[in-house]
Each structure stands twice: as C-alpha cells, then as structure tokens.
C-alpha cells in the first residue's frame, strides 16, 4: 500500500512544481502587460486635445454661441442645456461655471413633479449668472 501512496505524493509534488512554474510564467506575462498598459496610459495622459489648448476666453465665447440668442432660453437640463458643457471634462466645467452669460436666461415652470430639483437648478443658475442682466420666464 505504501507504493501507490508514495507514487501519488510524488505525482502531487511534480504537479505542484509544474503549477508553480506556470504561475510564475503567468505572473511575468501579467507584469509585462501591466508595464505596457502603463506606457500606453502615460502617452494618453501626455496628449493634449487641440480644443483644450484654446485660451479660456475663446472657449467661453464658443460656449456662449452654443446657446440660443439672448434673451431666448436654453433648456434647464439635457443636451441643449449649458449644464451639459460641465459634463465633458474638468476644464470645460471650470470654464462654463466661470461664464455668467451661459446662465443668464432661465425658463422654468412653477408647478412640476420635481419642484425641489427644479428649484435647486434655478438657484444654481442664478448664482452662476453673476451680474449679467437676467431673462426669466415662468
């Protein structure tokens, strides 16, 4: 009985050695892939999108032209809202928040299903409009 048990233990030891070797190879492959991934990410991080190299004043002016002509009102939310510009990247968010003309025309409904949310959005717009003359439709 000792011979089969001894043979089984020897087979298990050999299998463990083979698994250790395979794990080592896979760890080396993972390390190589992680190194390549890091290199690709560094190249992407170093890339400057041409639109992001524009001066903030130019970008701000482009944003203003995104809106309907004043005193017409953009949507408070959605793709046609100046708020959508704040969801592109940090730089655009900062520029949009610092451009009072984007927030100077507001159209709101007095009675809505989500009155609290609409009130919050209107208050945010009013705060961002700064000292610009306002056009408000209720």
Automatic annotation (TrEMBL):
Superkingdom as given in the UniProt entry: Eukaryota
Keyword Coiled coil found: yes
Keywords: Coiled coil
Coiled-coil intervals, chain numbering: 9-43
The protein, known as: F-box domain-containing protein
Species: Roridomyces roridus
């Amino acid at each position: 009985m000792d011979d089969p048990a001894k043979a089984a233990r020897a087979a298990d030891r050999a299998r463990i050695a083979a698994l250790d070797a395979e794990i080592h190879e896979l760890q080396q492959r993972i390390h190589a892939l992680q190194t390549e991934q890091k290199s690709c990410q560094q190249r992407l991080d170093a890339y400057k999108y041409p639109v992001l190299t524009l001066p903030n004043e130019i970008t701000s002016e482009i944003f203003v032209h995104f809106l309907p002509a004043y005193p017409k009102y953009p949507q408070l939310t959605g793709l046609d809202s100046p708020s959508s510009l704040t969801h592109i990247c940090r730089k655009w968010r900062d520029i949009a928040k610092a451009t009072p003309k984007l927030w100077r025309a507001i159209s709101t409904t007095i009675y809505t299903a989500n009155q609290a949310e609409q009130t919050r959005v209107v208050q945010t717009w009013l705060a961002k409009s700064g000292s610009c003359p306002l056009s408000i439709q209720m």
